[in-house]
Amino acid sequence: MISMNKTNPGVALVTGASSGIGRATAIALQSAGFRVFGTSRRAAKNSDGLSMLACDVTDDASVAKLVDDVLAETGRIDLLVNNAGVGLFGGAEESSMVQAQALFDVNVFGVLRVTNAVLPIMRRQGRGRIVNLSSVQGFIPAPYFALYASTKHAIEGYSESLDHELRPFGIRVALVEPAYTRTSFEDNLAKPDQLLDIYDAARAGMNAVVRKAMEKGDSPEVVAKTVLVAATDRAPKRRYAAGKMARQVSLLRRFVPASAFDKSLRKQNGLPV
């Protein structure tokens, strides 16, 4: 059994850790003293001192094997970072139900699968921390990202509610909300499986807005630093904005009148006001 102290905060499991935010997070946690296990859909080589394990978060058996493998090696899991996710860009009605369900299976039910597999362990330990990667699109409208934003809105409601359920067991749940981040996420965005001509112009315009914003986005390390704070705060908050833009959007959403926020959002996204 591993003893916990300031120099050894315990065992961390980070899903989707092969690149981008997940990779940066795994490295940041390791630097802070965690023993880190990262996951990717396909087996990846261990590097930078990280132990990489294969896991498909849409598969119950794969998730169960992941948790069993970590337990067999360490006997505990102190921190879970649910980072694995996929994106989808296009008009909401341009995706079939099959495509929408596949998106939710990764971004929402994937989080539920891994969390449910880890919770019995954390309850036995009498302690644990779960950090779920959300987005500013988890609390604001996101034109042409409607289905992706819906998954993040779902994670926000799930995480806040779950935190209240788990506090009696010494387990806390926190959200990290990045804005645009310079990763390969944009390049890997899925496209709708039933494109409609009526959306071509607006979709192209929104794509240009996104590309420009991504160029000015935060580095993955900015988000990783925020995850580390959320993972180690003695009195964790429910949500943590990751980066300057995310903090600004959070404040605007809370304090700007709805009509003014609506106009500003449309202007920022190049949509008719």
Automatic annotation (TrEMBL):
<protein>
    <submittedName>
        <fullName>Short chain dehydrogenase</fullName>
    </submittedName>
</protein>
<feature type="domain" description="Ketoreductase">
    <location>
        <begin position="10"/>
        <end position="201"/>
    </location>
</feature>
<dbReference type="InterPro" id="IPR036291">
    <property type="entry name" value="NAD(P)-bd_dom_sf"/>
</dbReference>
<dbReference type="InterPro" id="IPR057326">
    <property type="entry name" value="KR_dom"/>
</dbReference>
<dbReference type="InterPro" id="IPR051911">
    <property type="entry name" value="SDR_oxidoreductase"/>
</dbReference>
<dbReference type="InterPro" id="IPR002347">
    <property type="entry name" value="SDR_fam"/>
</dbReference>
<dbReference type="GO" id="GO:0016491">
    <property type="term" value="F:oxidoreductase activity"/>
</dbReference>
<dbReference type="Pfam" id="PF00106">
    <property type="entry name" value="adh_short"/>
</dbReference>
<keyword id="KW-0560">Oxidoreductase</keyword>
<comment type="similarity">
    <text>Belongs to the short-chain dehydrogenases/reductases (SDR) family.</text>
</comment>
